[in-house]
């Protein structure tokens, strides 16, 4: 009798219909989707273990970059700030979201439908819109940007998730349990703590973990509302990637990825539990305690009475230089980074962002001066002013150098691989050569791309002639099929890994790439390129202008300028700096372009009323 069922079961299995081609195809598609989603993440983890100073699979694998990240004051401060924001936002969102879910789930009132719809708005609205709206609101209220502005916005977009999750859990709650407890004499508070809350606990834990992950990962909204000295880890990673991706950045991104995946996975698991087991409560409590200790612990920089807040391009200063300045002047330096002059302008125009020192490019410095956003610099405090090359002084945007001090200078030209491009590159025509289809990269910069096309035709990069601009637009449109990508951030990485053989780029980043691969070269074409000066300036609402002037004077010292050159790869207007540089830096023509190259270069200037035509043509080119 016992044998027959087993045999019948075996026969049923043997004769069970096999999956058809349709099911197999669906599994294949699902596998391909997962492969597409997760292979880049696995590559990121592998690249974070490479032994080379640039991402390179052939260099072997080590874990030293993770150690470097965990020893970096900038990364540690960003991690601590991220944890403080995420933990605070999670706690507040849980309280507000749970209260809202209970009110919406147990009561009916006029306007409830509209409130429920409004809860979806922070979830479905584009993050850029949320960021702009948040900054506009804070500006109207006159509230300064900083930790509290970031926290308020994070609470705003995290709370709806708590409402959704708790309401879904509340739908399965048997109201008879609550009624029975009340009939037995329990107070409403006791019913909540002993009946309702235990039932909601898995949803609260899951919602809290999800809010923590969302807050920890956010970059776009945070970049809008972050103020002086408030840099979270995602914002720091994004800004550093603008000047190249290194294993150090990959290691930090991998740490963030691992933490986020762990939190989200735990949240999904906990939401499926009827009640939280003991091991889950112990593990969760231990983890929260550890994160809390890190968040509220001392800052990596230590305490200081005065903090100098610097808003600067990523990788545009030296950690060693900052630490030396802190020691000399007994202060703390907090650095926040941006990736475009327009981002800098937007922050300062709000009037609620307060920085002590900024580094705008020359044309943007002129805009800031005209809008009254810069404070005059007390030249009597700059004892190292005499080191500056007069050629970089009295520029049209600040003729008397009343508001700005030149910091670095940038030249735009062509970087190329000598082992891939057989003939010397001397003209802009090389970027229009069909032989290099798919191996050309252009800057993702409207004026720089038009400058290259205009120079190629012998016109000024600041042309206001409609026919010249239209001809340049036609040339750029014809070139687009040859272009692999438009990239202003990591074009030197494309040269290093061989994805691009010719790139339209800046001398400093290509100079650093050439130090890693001697086959990489840089040239300013015969028709000429562009040049720019990045300046040190003090915003009109700076809290510590005297300390900012001391920092300016400090970086004008030849030793400090030499340190900046070796970090950025860009030349400096400091005439004495070469005496403090190693020969391979001091005599590098890519870092300090020769006079013949500089004479070919022109400064990009404001083109006035014709600018909308540039905008129109650029939009058409990029949309094709």
UniProtKB/TrEMBL annotation:
CDD domains: PBP2_PotD_PotF_like (cd13590), TM_PBP2 (cd06261). It is found in: Cell membrane; Periplasm. It holds the Pfam family BPD_transp_1. Keywords: Membrane, Periplasm, Signal, Transmembrane, Transmembrane helix, Transport. The chain crosses the membrane at residues 35-55, 75-105, 117-139, 145-168, 251-270, 290-313. It is a multi-pass membrane protein. Residues 79-268 form the ABC transmembrane type-1 domain. Its main location: membrane. The keyword Membrane applies. InterPro entries: MetI-like, MetI-like_sf, SBP, Sperm_putr-bd. Belongs to the binding-protein-dependent transport system permease family. This is Extracellular solute-binding protein. It comes from Chloracidobacterium sp. N.
């Amino acid at each position: 009798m016992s044998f027959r069922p087993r045999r019948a079961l075996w026969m049923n299995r043997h004769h069970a219909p096999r999956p058809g081609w349709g099911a197999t195809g669906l599994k294949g598609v699902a596998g391909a989707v997962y492969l597409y989603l997760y292979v880049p993440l696995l590559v990121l983890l592998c690249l974070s273990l490479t032994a080379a100073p640039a991402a390179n699979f052939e260099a072997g694998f080590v874990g030293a970059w993770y150690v470097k990240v965990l020893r970096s004051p900038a990364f540690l401060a960003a991690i601590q700030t991220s944890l403080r924001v995420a933990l605070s936002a999670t706690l507040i969102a849980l309280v507000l979201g749970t209260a809202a879910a209970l009110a919406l789930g147990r009561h009916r009132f006029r306007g409830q439908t509209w409130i429920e719809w409004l809860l979806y708005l922070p979830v479905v609205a584009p993050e850029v819109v949320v960021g702009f709206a948040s900054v506009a609101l804070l500006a109207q209220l006159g509230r300064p940007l900083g930790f509290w502005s970031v926290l308020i916005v994070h609470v705003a977009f995290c709370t709806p998730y708590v409402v959704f999750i708790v309401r879904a859990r509340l739908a399965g709650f048997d109201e008879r349990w609550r009624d029975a407890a009340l009939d037995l004499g329990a107070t409403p508070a006791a019913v909540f703590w002993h009946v309702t809350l235990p039932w909601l606990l898995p949803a609260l834990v899951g919602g809290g973990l999800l809010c923590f992950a969302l807050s920890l990962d956010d970059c776009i909204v945070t970049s809008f509302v972050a103020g002086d000295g408030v840099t979270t880890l995602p914002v720091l990673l994004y800004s550093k990637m603008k000047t190249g991706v290194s294993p150090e950045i990959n290691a930090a991104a991998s740490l963030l990825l691992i933490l986020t995946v762990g939190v989200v996975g735990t949240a999904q698991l906990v939401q499926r539990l009827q009640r939280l087991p003991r091991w889950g409560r112990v593990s969760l409590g231990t983890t929260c305690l550890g994160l809390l200790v890190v968040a509220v612990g001392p800052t990596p920089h230590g305490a200081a009475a005065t903090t100098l807040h610097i808003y600067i391009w990523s990788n545009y200063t030296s950690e060693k230089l900052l630490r030396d300045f802190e020691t000399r002047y007994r202060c703390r330096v907090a650095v926040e980074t941006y990736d475009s002059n327009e981002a800098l302008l937007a922050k300062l125009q709000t009037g609620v962002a307060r920085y002590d020192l900024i580094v705008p490019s020359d044309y943007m410095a002129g805009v800031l001066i005209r809008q009254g956003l810069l404070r005059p610099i007390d030249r009597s405090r700059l004892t190292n002013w005499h080191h500056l090359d007069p050629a970089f002084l009295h520029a049209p945007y600040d003729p008397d150098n009343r508001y700005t001090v030149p910091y670095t200078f940038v030249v735009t030209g062509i970087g190329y691989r000598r082992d891939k491009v057989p003939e010397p590159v001397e003209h802009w025509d090389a970027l229009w050569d069909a032989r290099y289809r798919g191996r050309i990269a252009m800057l993702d910069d409207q004026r720089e791309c038009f400058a290259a096309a205009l120079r190629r035709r012998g016109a000024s990069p600041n042309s206001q002639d409609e026919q010249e601009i239209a001809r340049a637009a036609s040339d750029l449109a014809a070139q687009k099929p040859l272009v692999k990508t438009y990239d202003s951030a990591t074009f030197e990485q494309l040269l290093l890994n061989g994805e691009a053989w010719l790139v339209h780029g800046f001398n400093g980043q290509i100079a650093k790439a050439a130090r890693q691969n001697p086959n990489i070269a840089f040239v300013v074409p015969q028709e000429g390129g562009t040049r720019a000066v990045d300046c040190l300036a003090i915003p009109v609402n700076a809290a510590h202008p005297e300390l900012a002037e001391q920092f300016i004077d400090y970086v004008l010292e030849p030793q400090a300028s030499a340190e900046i050159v070796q970090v950025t790869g860009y030349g400096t207007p400091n005439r004495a700096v070469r005496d403090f540089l190693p020969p391979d830096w001091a005599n590098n023509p890519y870092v300090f372009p020769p006079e013949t190259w500089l004479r070919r270069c022109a400064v990009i200037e404001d083109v006035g009323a014709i600018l909308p035509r540039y905008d129109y043509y650029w939009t058409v080119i990029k949309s094709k």
